[in-house]
Amino acid sequence: MTHPFIFLEWLEQQLHLHIGSHVTYTWLVMALLIFLAVVVKRSIKTVPSGLQNFLEPVIDGIENMIEETMGHKGKAYFPLIATIAFFILASNLIALIPGFFPPTANLNTNAAIALTVFAMTHIIGVKEHGIGYFKHFCGPVIWLAPLIVPIEIVGHLARPLSLTLRLFGNMYGHEIVLMIFFGLVPFLLPLPMMLMGVLVAFIQTFVFMLLAMIYIAGSLEEAH
Amino acid sequence: MEFFAWCVVAAGIGMGLGSFGTGIGQGLAIQKAVEGVARNPGASGKIMTIMLIGLAMIESLAIYVFVVAMIILFANPFTETVVQLLNK
Description:
The complex is a heterodimer of chains A (about 220) and B (about 90).
Chain A: H1 7-15, H2 21-42, H3 51-70, H4 78-93, H5 107-129, H6 145-184, H7 190-220
Helix pairs in contact in A: 2-4, 3-7, 4-7, 5-6, 5-7, 6-7
Chain B: H1 2-39, H2 44-74, H3 79-87
Helix pairs in contact in B: 1-2
């Protein structure tokens, strides 16, 4: 829900800046994640305890998923995927704390992440296959290429669009629903919706991560 | 003012139609996934993953309609023109 009081927006108004709350909250999430990483890295041990105990299975899970969907070649792209996953999850979840605005409920943040994935798939493709990467766009037989190439190009351009709009629509839609429920009955009625918000936050992170993996895996494999 | 009334109607009907088809599609997907898990509970992890991707793909149709509805309601590109014409 868009909370009536967003503290970084208030701070911005006091300082007479015009940045936009989605940017300031993106910075906040970044700072949070960097802080977490530094804290965990400082106290890394062979016998884990505390925060390391919590983060190790998460990292392990992401690594296993990459191994499953992308093969052993995909291990190199673990930092990208894991960063995207952690960033989106943190951004989605801070929406539940009063005074916080989720950066993913803004089209610009999502477009930035989706375009990063889109650019990375093609950079990885060219890096892996050289000029032969463009065989991916030509279809199975060469004389079908004039038909297949436009379709492939539209398909590839639709990827960042759908990635952006899916995450944006889910987060923003959830905010609108919560706002309407709060308008109707503020007492206890929005609670189940908020619980669903937690679920949506996790599922959308999972889906974004998985789709990024599948796209990168698609440019890693050989042209058919 | 009729323009804005029709905008609201269009957003409502569009959202209804969009979620109608999406609901049927997701229902079919979940039906098959549940059947698959019932037959082979061992494969539930993999089926779950594939089903979630599929559901997210189908869901994005409804999300597109939602985004268009929000554009019609809150960020209509023709609002200024219509208001100018009304003031004439």
